Amino acid sequence: MAGGGILLADKGYDAAAIRAKAAEKGMFANIPPRRNRKGRFVFSGWLYRQRNLVERFFNKIKQFRGIATRYDKDPANFLAAVKLIATRLWCTSL
């Protein structure tokens, strides 16, 4: 995996092990620190809010029964179904 990615997660994933694993892979861990955290970390509020777009997308595709229950056990067929649904959602949003 190429480095330079961004790990977006909520406070539940604020752990030193997760941050270390992300750093090991060359990723920036954008995780809001817990209230009881002693160390300070770089955190982008704007970038964290963009996570909502991904959450809403997954919520929309789960409205389709075949994706929510994963009828297609073959990964290639499942990915094709997700792409078709994503295209349909994109076309209806125009």
What features would you describe in this structure?
This protein is mainly alpha-helical and 94 residues long. It folds into two domains: 6-49, no CATH class; 52-93, no CATH class. 51% of the residues lie in helices and 6% in strands. The protein has five helices and two strands. The chain has a two-stranded parallel sheet with strand order 1-2. Helix 1 links the parallel strand 1 (6-8) and strand 2. The longest helix has 19 residues, at 75-93.
Number of helices: 5
Radius of gyration: 17 Å
Low-confidence stretches: none
Q: Which sequence of SSEs, written as H and E, runs from N to C?
A: EHEHHHH
* Class by alpha and beta content: mainly alpha
Alpha-carbon distance between the two ends: 34 Å
Residues in β-strands, percent: 5-15%
Shape estimate: elongated
The strand line-up of the biggest sheet is: 1-2
Percent in helix? 40-55%
Number of domains: 2
Average pLDDT taken over every residue: 87
Largest sheet: 2 strands, parallel
Number of strands: 2
Could you give a short description of this structure?
This protein has 2 domains: 6-49, no CATH class; 52-93, no CATH class. Helices cover 51% and strands 6% of the residues. It is built from 5 helices and 2 strands, in the order βαβαααα.
Name the features.
5 helices; 94 residues; 6% strand; elongated; mainly alpha; two-stranded parallel ribbon; 2 domains
Structural topology:
Layout (H helix, E strand, L loop, with lengths): L5 E3 L7 H9 L3 E3 L14 H5 L1 H11 L3 H4 L6 H19 L1
